[in-house]
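2024-03-11 09:14:02 DEBUG pipeline.ingest accepted 1 chain
2024-03-11 09:14:02 DEBUG pipeline.ingest length=103
2024-03-11 09:14:03 DEBUG pipeline.predict start
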Amino acid sequence: MTNLERARKSIDVPILPFVFPQKIPLTIRLGDILDKVVAVKYFMADMWYSRIKAVKNPNFAFGLTLSDGKIHQHYEVCHVGSIAPCLAATDYKQARMVYLEQD
């Protein structure tokens, strides 16, 4: 008997199958929810420009490498027109970065 089978016998709760909701088109993009005017203190520091590296994910403009030479999740820079990535538990310390194309 597996652990799951033992748990089902010890708990009198029905196990219901999960049903995925119907798909809906995503119409709101990241650029739609960003502020139009942003203080200079929120712009990328000059030291990061030498660490820019291309990424394969189409929702990101580029990534920033750390001292280990790797691009970590929080150093992926989003396109304004991309779908906003989900929030992570550490987003309160370091918010997502967004690439604002020049007009």
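2024-03-11 09:14:41 DEBUG pipeline.report Helices lie at 3-10, 30-33.
2024-03-11 09:14:41 DEBUG pipeline.predict end
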